[in-house]
């Protein structure tokens, strides 16, 4: 009888109509956050981040089939997706697909985020089949439950993306998706195509991501097709609602130096200035003000697309002081500034046109007061490998990435010839004179190992590093979101010497940014007027020889660096020299004392000493880019 009873109960459950409960109500009632996947374990409270309510409840809105969230990091967008998925499993089940940028990301997400959620949520614990040995119903990449299943896959996996029909699709961090899943095409289109069977029958597509490059950002493009809703905060003074923008954040700051002589910042008195009335409010009060979603494109609801935009200033998990410190650290570095815009402000980063720059740089060449001019603290070198020659540039740097072109030249000969490398040795051993008579040598060299001489470059670099010459082989890695420098995971020749991967696109972007800096100081580029140093008109054409070009194919927009002037070796050499400068942590105070002959007199202050001085001398200013 009990078997028949259980069968009848299960049959009834299959045909029971969905419970009328929103995602936020379901989460408040059932969701438990655990310490292994959350910084705030305990019962879920939607009121902790009120902006999440409307995003989650759009999932059960009948006329909405696509939800887009373009947001900064740490705003809870992934937790909102998990709540949508949990509510669907419990109340309105169906086949699901959860897509992450790669297969490894998908597996890690399933293990670290989904599995703990299921274990801590009683309704899901009952409905998701228990994992058993040799049971395909519950694995890392698939969870099966009454009425459906959820598959976890990477956007690089065409088989899963083009598989069976699904009713629910969740796609996380879509700006990190590849342009094509193998040879099958755009992973977004592949995944969305799987929901066609359920069009008009309760399908839901959820897209979330922090944005990347303007014009090439997938999440920005999806956001613009929707209702374009922004979370507006009510000013306690004038009662008007406004979106908290970076330009309206004011703060006090003070600079100090760490033990490496690098600039750090102490930030205090951060406040939001209402753009309507000018009244200022601190972080604590602002985060407790009422808020609401305001749509800039309400007619998009007719197409079933709701889109939301958030930045870190609304998040209860953000710290405004920390946000301001990150801005100050990155304001003169386009790589850090781009990350700040994407992950903190939730905005795309715009690459600007650099036309006319080569002529301006050539015209401002200057006379140095020595072979190595005053201000240079470290020398690096970038070497580009060609079929019949090596081209090199030696660059001087200060602590704030102000640069001086020192020497540009060529070594004729193939990279597999010992004679060519003897000339490389002469360059690495060369001593460059300062005004005070002291001498400097190149501290780090990156040499391109691409082309036909990869193994030769590896072998020659390993041999020279054993002699302390500090030259490392590198390979370029294209892609807008690649890190600037990272070490190769495995040495191909097994000699144990380090080899590096260079994110050439991010490096080019930083160099092009520096070419537009016109005030002497951080990131300003100096060039010598002396013709024998190699900085002729051809050099500057090559330095600015590439630009970002937008391509549109099959409805998709992509951006990539392309040459518009054939000889781009100067750009590559400067890219490698800069990567060598950026990768290693230089003790600038020590270098400066060695080069000038002066003792290190500047005392490095502790944070407590800085805090003690803050009340005596604080400069108040707004934020400007």
Question: Can you offer a commentary on this structure?
Answer:
This protein has 20 helices and 28 strands. Strands 3, 4, 5, 6, 7, 8, 9, 10, 14 and 15 form a ten-stranded mixed beta sheet that branches. Strands 23-24-22-21-16-17-18-25 form an eight-stranded mixed beta sheet. Strands 13-12-11-28 form a four-stranded antiparallel beta sheet, sandwiched between helices. β16 and β17 form a beta hairpin. The radius of gyration is 28 Å and the shape is globular.
Task: Offer a concise description of the structure.
This protein is an alpha/beta fold and 625 residues long. It has 20 helices and 28 strands. A hairpin with a 5-residue loop joins strand 11 (249-257) and strand 12.
Number of helices: 20
Mass-distribution shape: globular
The structural class is: alpha/beta
How many strands appear in the DSSP assignment? Answer: 28
Instruction: Calculate the mean pLDDT score and round it.
Output: 85
CATH topology-level fold name of the largest domain:
Nucleotidyltransferase, domain 5
The percent range for helix content is 25-40%
Q: Radius of gyration in whole Å, from Cα?
A: 28 Å
- The number of distinct structural domains comes to 3
Q: What fraction strand?
A: 15-25%
Which properties best describe this structure?
625 residues; alpha/beta; Rossmann fold; Nucleotidyltransferase, domain 5; ten-stranded mixed β-sheet; eight-stranded mixed β-sheet; 20 helices; 28 strands; 31% helix; globular; disordered C terminus
């Amino acid at each position: 009888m009990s078997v028949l009873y259980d069968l009848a109960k299960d049959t009834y459950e299959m045909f029971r109509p969905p419970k009328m409960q929103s995602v936020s109500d379901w989460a408040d009632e059932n969701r438990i956050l655990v310490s292994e996947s959350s910084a705030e374990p305990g019962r879920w409270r939607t009121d902790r981040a009120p902006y999440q309510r409307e995003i989650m409840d759009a999932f059960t809105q009948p006329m909405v089939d696509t939800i887009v969230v373009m947001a900064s990091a740490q705003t809870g967008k992934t937790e909102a997706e998990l709540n949508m998925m949990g509510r669907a499993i419990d109340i309105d089940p169906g086949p699901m697909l959860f897509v992450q940028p790669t297969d490894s990301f998908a597996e890690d997400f399933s293990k670290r985020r989904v599995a703990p959620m299921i274990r801590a949520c009683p309704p899901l614990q009952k409905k998701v089949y228990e994992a058993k040995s040799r049971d395909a119903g519950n694995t890392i990449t698939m969870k099966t439950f009454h009425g459906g299943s959820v598959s976890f896959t990477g956007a690089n996996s065409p088989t899963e993306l083009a598989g069976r029909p699904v009713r629910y699709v969740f796609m996380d961090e879509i700006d990190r998706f590849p342009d094509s899943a193998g040879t099958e095409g755009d992973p977004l289109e592949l995944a969305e195509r799987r929901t066609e069977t359920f069009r008009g029958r309760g399908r839901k597509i959820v897209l979330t991501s922090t944005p990347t490059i303007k014009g090439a950002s997938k999440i920005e493009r999806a956001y613009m097709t929707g209702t374009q809703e922004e979370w507006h905060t009510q000013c306690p003074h004038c009662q008007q609602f406004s979106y908290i923008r970076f330009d309206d954040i004011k703060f006090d700051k003070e600079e100090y130096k760490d033990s490496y002589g690098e600039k750090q910042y102490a930030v205090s008195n951060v406040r939001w200035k209402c753009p309507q009335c000018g009244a200022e409010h601190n972080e604590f009060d602002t985060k407790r003000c009422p808020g609401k979603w305001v749509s800039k494109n309400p007619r998009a609801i007719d197409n079933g697309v709701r889109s939301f935009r958030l930045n870190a200033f609304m998040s209860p998990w953000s710290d405004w002081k920390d946000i301001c410190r990150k801005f100050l650290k990155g304001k003169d570095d386009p790589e850090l500034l781009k990350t700040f815009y994407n992950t903190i402000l939730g905005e795309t980063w715009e690459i600007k046109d650099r036309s006319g720059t080569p002529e301006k740089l050539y015209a401002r060449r200057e006379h140095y007061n020595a072979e190595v001019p005053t201000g240079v603290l470290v020398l690096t070198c970038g070497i580009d490998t060609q079929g019949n020659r090596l081209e090199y540039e030696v660059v001087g740097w200060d602590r704030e990435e102000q640069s001086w072109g020192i020497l540009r030249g060529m070594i004729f000969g193939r990279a597999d010839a010992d004679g060519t490398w003897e000339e490389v040795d002469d360059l690495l051993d060369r001593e460059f004179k300062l005004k005070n008579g002291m001498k400097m040598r190149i501290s780090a060299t990156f040499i391109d190992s691409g082309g036909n001489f990869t193994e030769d470059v590896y072998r020659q670099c390993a041999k020279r590093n054993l002699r302390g010459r500090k030259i490392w082989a590198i390979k370029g890695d294209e892609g807008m979101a690649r890190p600037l420098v990272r070490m190769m995971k495995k040495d191909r020749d097994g000699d144990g010497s380090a080899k590096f991967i260079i994110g050439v696109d991010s490096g080019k972007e930083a160099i092009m940014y520096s070419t537009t800096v016109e005030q002497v100081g951080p990131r300003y580029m100096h060039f010598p007027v002396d013709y024998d140093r190699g900085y002729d008109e051809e050099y500057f054409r090559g330095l600015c020889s590439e630009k970002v070009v937008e391509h549109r194919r099959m409805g998709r927009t992509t951006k990539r660096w392309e040459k518009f002037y054939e000889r781009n070796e100067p750009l590559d050499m400067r890219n490698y020299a800069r990567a060598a400068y950026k990768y290693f942590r230089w003790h600038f105070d020590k270098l400066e004392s060695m080069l000038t002959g002066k003792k290190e007199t500047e005392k490095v202050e502790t944070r407590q000493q800085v805090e003690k001085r803050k009340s005596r001398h604080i400069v108040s200013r707004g934020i400007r880019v």
